[in-house]
Design a protein that fits this description.
The protein contains 18 helices and 13 strands. Bound molecules: NADPH dihydro-nicotinamide-adenine-dinucleotide phosphate and (2Z)-2-iminopentanedioic acid (2IT). The site of (2Z)-2-iminopentanedioic acid (2IT) has 12 residues, from strand 3, helix 6 and helix 16.
Length: 445
């Protein structure tokens, strides 16, 4: 059996009931086959793939908190410190009822390669809780965040592990988490990123993931001599990433025709009006259905998968994992879609990716295309260390060049390993090689 297949089999056997983690490992290792084969003896001797797929540390803890009725609630907290070969662990926190150890491990594993691709000195980690922020009062969110940090603080630090946001964790949650860390440690340091601007947050961080995904799509198209201007785009989600992407698309002259939530989607064939979206989203944290009630000609449809059945040139999945399956991928192709660029983490199933490949779509894989968020988090860490704050233009220009470099480095790696134009293989290879070299250089850890 080849080394790659041996390690995949071990991961499946040793990590039962973690299908998302298996999926992420299989995708990376299978596309790294050519790289591994070229160095098989050295990698095997160093047990490099076994070490790469085993987190350095996995922390699980109880999070008790009191709800508005005086009832004690109990959730589970997670932090998986996956790999620190090239820098302190870095990655978001997800608060969503679906969170379990396997989901956090898939996200942490992806984060290792993504962070390497940014070119910044950051290792990979991820955390979160099965806490559901939906429908909770501000006080309940604060109580939960304070309890969560009362355990997490002992495992993190500005030079050890620097969490940020992900699904269900935005500036409000980061604020409460930061406050509690500062109170317990009596230290004002850059231990979290995605902070509000008033206490060390970087400009552009709220928009960074979405902006970065659109910059990535723009560079992919440019490589093919095409412009994003005038293209029709379908987006899923209605959160941090979708909102950043929507704003940048409209600025660049693309036509955005959808947004979506877990229950349904909006289709506005005349182009989504961002001022209305902003009012619903930021004005009163409302539901997307309201958009169709306010905009003549816009339609609301039940079911989140339908968003992939509208005619479009470009699809930007920005909601969650495995949101595009084989059927949705085929629907995209049938309706003329030529580009899929992933804002969410692992939004396409392996079968969907095969459909993109078989039909010659331009495919920007998540760990490359959504790296803009963590990249600006890395820039926030630098600004916090320097105790200064860069302008919007400075950060945005750095983000643009990081995304451009990721496209260029991934294409170069794809070419080096004989798969010209394959951004998935190229991104996995480029991200992996740096981490692998650092691990070997640091000895048996
Ligand atoms: P948010 O919580 O801000 O937004 C998530 C959005 O997706 C919400 O609108 C949510 O709706 C919607 N959603 C959740 N589940 C589904 C579903 N099954 N179908 C359709 N819509 C759904 O999270 P983010 O925008 O931060 O994260 C979105 C994705 O991007 C995730 O995969 C995340 O891991 C990834 N990502 C995030 C980064 C960041 O910087 N925040 C960086 C890189 C990747 P509702 O609120 O109604 O549940
Ligand atoms: O998936 C991701 O890259 C994030 N949620 C952002 C992580 C970060 O540390 O900014």
């Amino acid at each position: 059996m080849s080394y790659v297949d041996e390690v995949i089999a071990q991961v499946v056997e040793k990590n039962p009931v973690q299908p998302e983690f298996h999926q992420a490992v299989k995708e990376v290792l299978e596309s790294l086959r050519v790289v591994v084969e070229a160095n098989e003896e050295e990698f095997r001797k160093n047990a490099l793939l076994e070490r790469l797929t085993n987190p350095e540390r996995q922390i699980m803890f109880r999070v008790p908190w009191v709800d508005d009725k005086g009832q004690v609630q109990v959730n589970t907290g997670f932090r998986v410190q996956f790999n620190s070969a090239i820098g302190p662990y870095k990655g978001g926190l997800r608060f969503h009822p679906s969170v379990n150890l396997g989901i956090i491990k898939f996200l942490g594993f992806e984060q290792v390669f993504k962070n390497s691709l940014t070119g910044l000195p950051i290792g990979g980690g991820k955390g979160g809780s099965d806490f559901d922020p939906k429908g909770k009062s501000d006080r309940e969110i604060m109580a939960f965040c304070q309890s969560f940090m009362t355990e997490l603080y002992r495992h993190i630090g500005a030079d050890t592990d620097v969490p940020a946001g992900d699904i269900g964790v935005g500036a409000r949650e980061i604020g409460y988490l930061f406050g509690q860390y500062k109170r317990i440690r009596n230290e004002f340091v850059g231990v979290l990123t995605g902070k509000p601007r008033e206490f060390g947050g970087s400009r552009v961080r709220p928009e960074a993931t979405g902006y970065g995904t659109v910059y990535f799509a723009q560079h992919m198209l440019k490589e093919k001599g095409q412009d994003i201007k005038g293209k029709t785009v379908a987006i899923s989600g209605f959160g941090n990433v979708a909102w950043g992407a929507a704003q940048k698309l409209v600025q660049l002259g693309a036509k955005l025709v959808t947004i979506s939530g877990p229950d349904g989607y909006i289709y506005d064939p005349d182009g989504i009006k961002l001022d209305i979206v902003k009012d619903i989203k930021l004005g009163h944290r409302g539901r997307i259905k309201e958009y169709a009630e306010r905009v003549p000609g816009a339609e609301y449809h039940e079911g989140c998968k339908g968003v992939w059945t509208v005619p479009c040139d470009i699809a930007l999945p920005c909601a969650t994992q495995n949101e595009i399956d084989e059927e949705s991928a085929k629907a995209l192709v049938a309706n003329g879609c030529k580009v899929v660029c992933e804002g969410a983490n692992m939004p396409s199933t392996p079968e969907a990716i095969a459909v993109y490949q078989d039909n010659g779509l331009l495919y920007g894989p998540a760990k490359a295309a959504n790296a803009g968020g963590v990249a600006v988090s890395g820039l926030e860490m630098s600004q916090n260390s320097y105790r200064l704050s860069w302008t919007f233009e400075e950060v945005d220009n750095k983000l643009k060049s990081i995304m451009e470099n990721i496209v260029a480095n991934s294409l170069a790696a794809a070419k080096e390993y004989g798969h010209e134009g394959d951004l998935m293989l190229g991104a996995n290879a480029a991200g992996f090689v740096k981490v692998a070299n650092a691990m070997v250089a640091q000895g048996v850890l």
